[in-house]
Each structure stands twice: as C-alpha cells, then as structure tokens.
Amino acid sequence: MFITGLGGYLGGELGRRAPLAGWEVEGVLGSAQLDVRDADGIRAAVVTARPDVVVHTAYRMDDAGVNVDGTRAVAAAAGAAGARLVHLSTDVVFADGERPLSEDDPPGPVTGYGESKLEAERACPPSALIVRTSLLYGGERPSPHEVAAIEAADGARDMTFFTDEVRCPIAVGDLAEAVLELAATDAVGPLHVAGTDALDRLEFARLVAAHHGRDPDALRGGEGGPGRPKRLALDCSRARALLRTRLRGVREVLGG
Ligand SMILES: NC(=O)c1ccc[n+]([C@@H]2O[C@H](COP(=O)([O-])OP(=O)(O)OC[C@H]3O[C@@H](n4cnc5c(N)ncnc54)[C@H](OP(=O)(O)O)[C@@H]3O)[C@@H](O)[C@H]2O)c1
C-alpha cells in the first residue's frame, strides 16, 4: 500500500494501522519529501514501490493546485503502477440536504475547498474508490477541530461555532480501519464513510470540550452565513453494508 500524506492526521493513523492489517506500507510523508504535484516524481515513487493500492490522503485546505493537480498526478501514478486508487474526499462537495445525502445526490460545493475537492474527484478514473468523509477527531493527538474547541473553551481563541452547519464527525481510527477494509474490496465510485451522529458544529465542539475537561458552555455559537455549507448529514448505508468496522457516532466515542 502506498499512502500520500503519511505525516497527516489520517495518513499517520493509516500508517500505524495498515501493518497490523497485513499491508506493507510505503508512501510520502508530506510536501518536503515529495510534492504530489510533481507528476514525474510521484509516478517514479509509486511505480518503484509497486503497491496493490494507492491511498491518496494528501491535500491542502487552501490550495486547489495541490488538491486537483496533485490528485491528477497521483491517479496517473496509480494507473502506471496498475494499482487500485482510493481517494479521500469530503462532505463539503455538497452544500445542503433536507435528508441525509447519498452517493446519488448531485454535489454542489459552496466553498473553494469544496470545489477543488469535487474537481479532484473528477480527476480520478472510474475504477477509483472515492471515500467522502467528514470532520476527523479522536486520534493520538487532538485534531485541528478539537484544538479549536479546547482553545476557545480556554479563552485562548475567539471563535464562533456554527449552529446551522450539520456534519457527521468520524473518529479517525474508525475511518482508517474502514479505508483499510475498503482498500481490499473492489468497490468503486463515491462512497460515504462518516460517523453515525449528525450534529451542528457547536454541539460537536461542546462534546469535544467536555471530553477534554473544559466547560462546554464557554463556547459561543452563531450562524455560518451564505458562504458555508448547511446540513451535510451523509447517508452511509452503502458503506455500512460493506464494512465490518463500525462507524461510531461522536456521542459514543466521546461520551455525552
Ligand atoms: N480533517 C478533516 O476534518 C477532513 C474532513 C473531510 C475530509 N477530509 C479529507 O481527508 C483527507 C486527509 O485529511 P487530514 O486531516 O488527515 O489531512 P492533514 O492532517 O492536513 O494532512 C495532509 C497531509 O498532506 C500533505 N501534503 C499537503 N500538501 C502536499 C503536497 N503538495 N505534496 C505532498 N504532500 C502534501 C501534508 O504534509 P505537509 O504539510 O508536510 O506538506 C500532510 O501530510 C484529505 O483528503 C481531506 O480532504 C478531512
């Protein structure tokens, strides 16, 4: 298995767990080692590693070039090596949903990041598995979302947590286990893999704060406005039918 973003939050978790699931792991830690936009470099690295599967987690929230050109380069490299591609994508390829969003619902991002990740999905071949997930938390160290909640509760950060943006956060360990399972299947196309509980960003931040021993009522909520996604509950029933790994909800993982 060849993993991009091995030094990242999900990539690190995959790198730790993959050997336990019987995979030999190679990959790229981050841009200082090899930039995923370097198409020749990434192709040489993947072809030399001769993996069965390439899992592409590397991305940059604020850099469409990394997300789109990088994905194009990684997809081409996987193709050259004859490897299966598992590409990590996001719930923010959608804008809003009256009911949980399924893989058949048309995407329509409202942020630049969402647009770049949708374009990245479209840079993947039809044979790729595209894992759309949600907010990550619960790893060996707090994720940036958890750090934001903790720092805001401590008064070290001034932040409004959106009460009109609903997501399905997933424990990064559950996602890593699911990705490792899915890597060994022949599932292709978009697949929604997120946690069971749909909750707004203030509710999520409050659960995180309480879990880390902070006062949840210290956090302030407010509306995200027109430039933010709204109700992004993901319907993960297809993934659940494929997986042994349980996609737990935040309340089960963090308590509360
Ligand atoms: N985090 C979330 O809440 C969330 C939610 C939904 C979907 N996702 C998706 O899940 C995936 C993993 O997210 P994550 O939170 O684990 O990411 P992360 O912790 O930010 O890690 C990103 C990794 O990508 C690497 N990287 C960035 N630019 C690169 C480049 N040009 N060349 C090579 N490597 C590069 C980074 O290394 P350097 O910084 O050292 O370059 C880092 O190792 C992403 O595809 C993301 O879209 C995440």
The secondary-structure class comes to alpha/beta
Strand runs, count: 12
Number of helices: 9
Largest sheet, in brief, is: 6 strands, parallel
User: What is the alpha-carbon Rg in Å?
Assistant: 18 Å
Give, in spatial order, the strands making up the sheet with the most strands: 2-1-3-4-5-10
Uncertain segments? none
The CATH homologous superfamily is termed NAD(P)-binding Rossmann-like Domain
- Number of self-contained structural domains: 1
Query: What's the CATH topology label?
Result: Rossmann fold
Proportion in helices: 25-40%
Series of secondary-structure elements, N-terminal to C-terminal = EHEHEHEHEEHEEEHEEHEHH
Bound small-molecule species: NADP nicotinamide-adenine-dinucleotide phosphate
Question: What would you note in describing this structure?
Answer:
By secondary structure, the chain is of the alpha/beta class. It has a single domain, classed as 3-Layer(aba) Sandwich (Rossmann fold), CATH 3.40.50. The chain is built from 9 helices and 12 strands. The chain has helices at 9-17, 39-49, 64-81, 112-122, 144-153, 172-183, 201-211, 237-242, 250-254, and strands at 2-4, 26-28, 53-56, 84-90, 129-133, 136-137, 160-162, 166-167, 170-171, 189-192, 199-200, 220-222. The strands form 4 sheets. Strands 2-1-3-4-5-10 form a 6-stranded parallel β-sheet, sandwiched between helices. Helix 3 (64-81) links the parallel strand 3 (53-56) and strand 4 (84-90). The longest helix has 18 residues, at 64-81. It is globular and about 55 Å long. NADP nicotinamide-adenine-dinucleotide phosphate binds next to helix 1, helix 3 and strand 4.
